[in-house]
Amino acid sequence: MDPNAVINRILRLARLDTTVFDEVRDDVNELIPALIVAGVSALLAGLGAFLWWQFNFDPSPDGTFFRAFILGGLFMAGLYLVWVLIDYVMIVQVFKASADLQSLLRTMGYAGIPMALSVLMFIPVLYPAFALVPLGLLFVLSIYAVQSTTNADSTQVVLSNLVGFTVFVLVLGIVATSSDYPDAPIGAGAFALILDIP
After folding, report:
1. E strands in the chain
2. DSSP one-letter code for 30
3. DSSP 179
4. Contact criterion met (CB below 8 Å) for 9 and 95
5. Domain residues for 72?
6. Can you say how many angstroms the Cα of residue 66 is from the centroid of all Cα atoms in its chain?
7. Does residue 100 lie in a domain region?
8. pLDDT one-digit tens code per residue, 31-44
9. Number of folded domains in the chain?
10. pLDDT tens digits for 55-80?
11. 114: preceding bond cis by omega (within 30 degrees)
């Protein structure tokens, strides 16, 4: 794993250079770096949720660090993997197109980088943008990532991705609201904010 190459790809994706997906699609050495990028991005979203609680509540609820940062980040990473698997099943089983699961994991791993922007959601006034915009970017980049790994048409890719994204959002939203205040919710990024606080 070449850290410089990984950073270069992340910077290119920040400029919305989607040719990164064509590069990593067939490179078997990129599986671990792609998974690390997605995992670290999810943990950064969890860190953003923790910092949001720290900056907006005095004192912040007990267990915020563990529940928002650790559990929230891990749930987000796990559900992102579920999203990838849903994409794969939809494309291969429902639309009968071809796709390679490892290629999809590599491209979707890099497509997960927008989750990291949620680390900045602690900034007063701007927190809705850093909570919600990363979800939009994540959805858009994931469409490009899936499209680069399959012969499915663009409508099928968008529909597959929409199903995976919907499951991702619904489950994370349910998990985030499953605990009652003053306990910190389990949630990362925007999913830490959807708790209805009295």
Report:
1. none
2. G
3. S
4. no
5. 3-192
6. 19
7. yes
8. 999 999 999 999 99
9. 1
10. 776 666 666 777 778 888 888 899 99
11. no
Task: Please say whether the beta carbons of 38 and 168 come within 8 A.
Answer: no
pLDDT at 83 over 90: yes
Cβ atoms of 187 and 195 within 8 Å: the answer is yes
Q: Rounded to an integer, what distance in angstroms lies between the CA atom of residue 137 and that of residue 114? A: 6
Phi, psi of 125 (to 5 degrees): 70, -40
Strand-pairing partners, residue 99, are 150
User: What's the one-letter identity of residue 42?
Assistant: A
Count each helix (H run) and each strand (E run) in the chain, helices first: 8, 0
- How far is the C-alpha of 26 from the C-alpha of 181, rounded, in Å? 47
Structure tokens of 43? Answer: 């943990």
Question: 198 lies in a domain?
Answer: no
189 within 8 A of 120, measured Cβ to Cβ: no
Query: Which of 27, 24, 6, 8 is CA-nearest to residue 144?
Result: 24
Q: How far apart (Å, rounded) are the C-alpha atoms in residues 180 and 185?
A: 7
Cα 149 off chain centre by: 18
Query: Exposure of 132 by Cβ count < 10 A (0-12 exposed, 13-18 middle, 19+ buried)?
Result: middle
Q: Is residue 16 part of a domain?
A: yes
Q: How far is CA 42 from CA 20, 32, 92, 123, in A?
A: 20, 15, 27, 18
**What is the number of residues in the chain?**
198
